[in-house]
Amino acid sequence: MTDSLRRFSVCAILIGAAVVGCANPREDVRLTLCKDMVAVELGAVPSWQGSAVQLRGYQGATVTVRFATADGNQQAACEYAYDAVDDTALILANPIEAYSTSPAKLTINGRTLTGPELARAVQRAMKKQGREFLDRVRETLNGQ
User: Fold this and answer.
1) How many Å apart are CA 20 and CA 128, to the nearest integer?
2) What's the CA gap between 95 and 64, in Å, rounded?
3) 26 phi/psi in degrees, rounded to 5
């Protein structure tokens, strides 16, 4: 195999993996991370009932998710800090882009996670996302 063909093959696989890698390309990364943090904190993926995003300018943004478990209807909120330096075309077109993609706080049914506890929740959620991504790539490469 020539170097050009090898490079083309690697690029094609990476592009395919990137396309397959997005579980829900229309869902904002902040919402996805919030849901995944809730799931890892609960130990199971709940039945998602809905979500809402509240943008409060420089005071930050709140992503709220509603879900149901065996214990009934519940709610969680992820707080994201304002993170923009300048107004760009992307921020003007999609204002949520002005906020950090890593939460400053997670509250599940009144219990608040911050600091090291929040960092561990983010780490576990990111590992979950990584495993799911690799599973989707394997399925795609195996033709399933």
Assistant:
1) 16
2) 17
3) -90, -10
Predicted TM-score (pTM) above 0.90: no
Q: pLDDT per residue over 19-64, tens digit each?
A: 444 455 689 999 999 999 999 999 999 999 999 999 999 999 999 9
Quickly tell me which residue has 């990584």 as its tokens: 130
Query: What are the tokens at 26?
Result: 């229309």
Q: Rounded to an integer, what distance in angstroms lies between the CA atom of residue 136 and that of residue 144?
A: 9
User: What residues does 32 pair with on adjacent strands?
Assistant: none
DSSP 3-state assignment of 40? helix
Domain coordinates of the chain in residue numbers?
A: 26-129
Count Cα atoms within 13 angstroms, Cβ side, for 119.
2
Q: Could you please report the per-residue DSSP string of 100-136? A: -SS-SEEEETTEEE-HHHHHHHHHHHHHHHHHHHHHH
